[in-house]
Design brief:
alpha/beta, eight-stranded parallel barrel, two-stranded antiparallel sheet, 12 helices, disordered C terminus
Amino acid sequence: MTMSIGLNLFSVFRELNEDYFGTLEKVAEMGYQNIELISSNFSTGERFTDTFSLPVIKRNLDELGLKAFAAHEGVAPGKAIIDGSWDQIIEENAALGCKSIVFPMAFITGREDTLQTAEHLNVIGKKCKQAGLDFYYHNHAHEFKRVGETSFFDLLVEHTDPEFVKFELDLVWVMRGGYNPISLLEKLGNRCDMIHQKDLGTHVDPINIFTALSEENNEDTMKLYREFVKPTDFVNLGTGIMNFEETYQKLNEMGIVRYAIVENEGQQGNKFTSIAGDLKVMEKYLQGLIKN
């Protein structure tokens, strides 16, 4: 299977907040063809589809030559996953041509809410499947917290139906959770055909953030992000610890991943310059592969 390069638009969420279509134009001009949408303006909380009509968004994407292959769709803080406006979300993304919907993060903190999350993901995944869309869960680091002989992530995999729920692995967050991304991809097989690619600075220590939690703080999973993850941890692709040559050689051999998606969370200089450089790095290591 040929891997295509994508860009998750969270990389430029501030720019989208200020100038939605102007930002998309710049993304297209630098050579990206495949984009993973984000749903809302993080400054106002409004969905972009409430600000601009679906036909206008679709027309602009088509004119710019941008393929919205997937969309990250979550729920408001404090709201249950199952209570999201999923019928509307599915309808809107289908109209934009998205074939996949990705749930970006569940704030699971223990075994019971992890199992409940899996149950809710199954319901939403079935709803997406019935509409002809794939549904994915996107990991961060906290899902890899151990619970006995397993982890929250393992519980999600075990208790979600492969027919309805797939996984979009963020390779660096997997590393920060203390797991090996390639080993996890091999375990997931066809349940993971989209990955997120970022890079982690060489100054970051420890890489596995669970080793930073003391025993008494181990119950507060979200403490990981409040105290042990910093915006400066993430750097432009090819400037950090990620071994791109080895990773993409193995990914090519596996032949499972359809989309390798840039997600630049760093704060180094101009964001457009950063993601333009990221695209060149991805093209280098996916040399000989088409981008769409």
